[in-house]
Structure formats: structure tokens, C-alpha cells
Amino acid sequence: MDTVVSGIRSTGNLHLGNYFGAVRNFLKMQRENNCFFFIADYHSLTTHPKPDDLHGNIKQVLAEYLACGIDPEIATVFIQSDVPEVTELYLLLNMNAYVGELERTTSFKEKIRKHPDNINAGLLTYPVLMAADIIIHRAHKVPVGKDQEQHLEMTRRFARRFNMIYEVNYFPEPDAYNFGQELIKIPGLDGTGKMGKSEGNGIFLADTPSEIRKKVMRAVTDTGPTEPGQEPSEPVKNLFTIMNVVSDPSTVKYFTDKHASCEIRYGDLKKQLAEDIVKVTEPVRVRINEILGDNKYLAKVVKEGGEKARESASGTIRDVREILGYRSF
Ligand code: TRP
Prior knowledge:
By secondary structure, this protein is mainly alpha-helical. Helix content is 56%, strand content 7%. It contains 14 helices and five strands. β1 (3-9), α1 and β2 (34-40) form a beta-alpha-beta unit. It starts with a strand and ends in a 5-residue tail after the last helix. The structure holds tryptophan. Tryptophan binds next to β1 and α8.
């Protein structure tokens, strides 16, 4: 079995885009691989979360992934900061990561541009920590979105460099887990672009039915088709894209035909869409709240997951120290 590692940032709640894009693939992946799924809470420190918020953020994200069907009996589910071995590997890898290459990373340059007041060293070495997360379990595959491709490329480079410097063949170079056709992009409700955590255009799994109805009814559309067979505008096409994943094919066909014949009423389309979204999200929301209320279960999940992850990580640290030349007295 291949080993898969994926880190989930503990900022922002899961939205429909995450659900249909990434999470549903995780559910399949966990049955076919040796999976490590963790909450990347060390990474979240780069933006200085308030101590009063940190635990709640971690708990919320954990509950949401479990509610979606990530199964701690099958996959190793843990919190990054419960595995201190990763910080040791991070330190060791930092010695062979060059400031120049880290400064050239796209995500780092973005941060400098957007937050010139907080360019901390943790941001600079973010890709090194991510590499440590991955190679500490000697992973073969990492499911990544477009925005993480460069980080994975750097992971491969750090793994390769380690092997070269110490003349070993210890770390495998992890590949991107490719979902092919199955990677669905969910657009936002504001007319353009992808659904995002912070763009204010998203529907969250934790949203109540009334919040969902309100958001969908406010979604951007246009003034309606004027010619039969006319191609829908981008905002309308986006609603159809969402409808395609949540609604019955016959519902999609009904509204597609109505659009083609210029008889469509966007109010009806939105009402239907909202109900179909609620049908998908409501059981998940109920489950999220059940899990959030069951601290004993959550404690058991992270304790067992943390132990399994540490077992895997400490074996790697032992080997790496040996390779580096540490010897016992
Ligand atoms: N950097 C990833 C993100 O922003 C999160 C992450 C941290 C990660 N460590 C990882 C993803 C290891 C995959 C593997 O989404």
C-alpha cells in the first residue's frame, strides 16, 4: 500500500468546494492507501491566532472532517502539534534549505505583498515544515490542489537533496496524488471564480438551512436570456455547475431547457438549488454538531491518531539521526 499524507489548515470552515473537490476524494483514498490526515496547526501559527481561538479552530476543522466520513479507524488522523518529531525533522531540513530558494517561493512572495507587516521566518520556512510533515512518514503520494504544487515540488527537492548529501536512498520523492477527472471545481456565488474560504462567496457545511437559503437567493445572476439557445452568462453557468453536483439530473435538465427557451425564472432555480444543497449539507451539519458535543470521542481520536503518527515519525527520526552521524555515548 502507498503512504499518503495530507495536511489540513486549521483556519476557516469547510465549504461546498472543499467537500466536492477534496474531501470526497479523501474518503476514497483512505480505503486504498495508508493515509495520514492531520490538522496543520503549527502552520497556522504564521498568522498569529489568538490563544483563545487556537483550540477551537483545531476542534472545528477536526469535527468537520470526521463528520464528512474521514474514518480514524482506517486512516491515521492526528494533530500536527501532537507529533513533536516533525519539529526536529524541520530543524534538520532547514540546514539544507537555502534562503534564496525559500525567498523565491510564490506563496512567500504573495505573503510579502499582502502582509508586509508580518514577514516572519516561519513563513519563509513554511515549505520546509510542510516537507517535514510529508517525508517524516516517507510518503509516496500527497493530494494537493494547484496552490500547493510548488510546495510539493520543494518537498521533492529537499528529499532528493537529503539523499544526495548523505549518499543514501532513504526518502522517497512524493508524487502529487492525481484525481484526474474527479477533481471538481466549485464556483462561488458571486459570479466569478472559485468558492473560497475568505472570499465571502461560499456555502459552508456548518451553515444552517436558513443561512444557505439566504446565500443562494442573493447569488449573482443576470437579466435573463433574450435569445433561444443562448449560452448562459458566467454567474448563471456557475449556479448550474453547483446544481450539477447537488441536484438530480432531471432537475438540471428542466432548468437548462427553461434557460434555452428563455422561460427561466432565476428565483425558481435558486429555490430549487438551495433545497438541494440543504439536502446534501444538513446531515453533515447535524453530525458536525454531534461530534463537537462529544469531547470524549474527539479526545480518543486524537490520542490514538497521535500515537500512531508518533510511532511512524519516531522511526524516521531515529534513522535520520543515525544518517547524520549522531551516535550514542
Ligand atoms: N500547506 C497546506 C495548505 O496550505 C497544508 C499542509 C501542511 C499540507 N502540511 C502539509 C498539505 C503536508 C499536504 C501535506 O493547504
